[in-house]
Structure formats: structure tokens, C-alpha cells
Amino acid sequence: MALAGAPSHAVGCVQGTTLVLQAFNGAAFRPEVVCRGLPLLLFQAQPSNPVMLLAMIGLLAEAGVQLLSYQTSVVSNGETWHVMGITSLLLSLDTWKQHVTKAFQFHF
Q1: What is the spatial distance between Cα 30 and Cα 13, in angstroms, rounded to a whole number?
Q2: Whole-number Å distance between alpha carbons of 104 and 96
Q3: How far apart are the first and last CA of the chain?
């Protein structure tokens, strides 16, 4: 698949009637990310940045969007994938790209 024009590889399955994301671009999620119809914000960042989550929540608040869930992957190639379940898709990811390596959003 391609997200924002970048080739990406997602691995998942269906458990009962629920879609779950098991890995993204080689980074595994444990536990798996449950995709229940929420908009998802997926971004890659360095794992050693302790204030990153606070900054990301601040960006959501500025956009009037609430955080509903949050999961991270295991470290892969020195970086971590983060998945946020949010109340609505963001109008733009431009402000996010200053803080993270890559960012995508989608809604199943």
C-alpha cells in the first residue's frame, strides 16, 4: 500500500469481526492495534524523546481533536511507530512533520 505517496507495508488480521494491525513497516505492535472505525494517526519518531507524547497531545488539542487511544511499536531501525486513535482526522499534518520522521492518518 502507499500512504502519502510512500510505499508502506502493513500486517494485520481479522479477529472475529475486528481488524487488528500487527506490524507496520517491519515494526511489531504488542499488543496489536485494534482498528474499530476510529480515525488513526500513525507516526514514526525516535523512541528516546520523553516529551514527544506531550507535544503530540498539545498539537491534537490545538486542532480541537481528542486522543482516544495510544500504542507504540517495538523499536525498529532506531525508531518507533506510534498509533493514536483520535476523534477526527486532522486537516493537515504539516505541524506534525516538524516533530516526527513520518506521519499518516487514515480511517477504516
Answers
A1: 14
A2: 10
A3: 14
Q: Report the CATH number that the domain containing residue 94 is assigned in CATH.
A: 3.30.70.260
> Which secondary structure element, helix H or strand E, spans residue 80, and what is its range?
strand 80-86
For the record, the C-alpha cell of 20 comes out as: 487488528
What is the reported pLDDT for 4?
Answer: 60
Examine the pLDDT at 58 and tell me if it is beyond 70. yes
pTM of the model as a whole? 0.86
Q: Which three cell numbers stand for residue 22?
A: 500487527
Q: Write out the residue range of the structural domain in which residue 30 sits.
A: 2-107
24 phi-psi bin (left φ>0, alpha ψ -120 to 50, beta other): beta
- Which residue type occupies 27? A
Q: Looking at the predicted structure, is the pLDDT value of residue 61 above 80?
A: yes
Residue 1 reports pLDDT greater than 90:
no
pLDDT at 50 over 80: no
Question: Distance between CA atoms of 29 and 13, rounded to whole angstroms?
Answer: 13
Position 3, amino acid: L
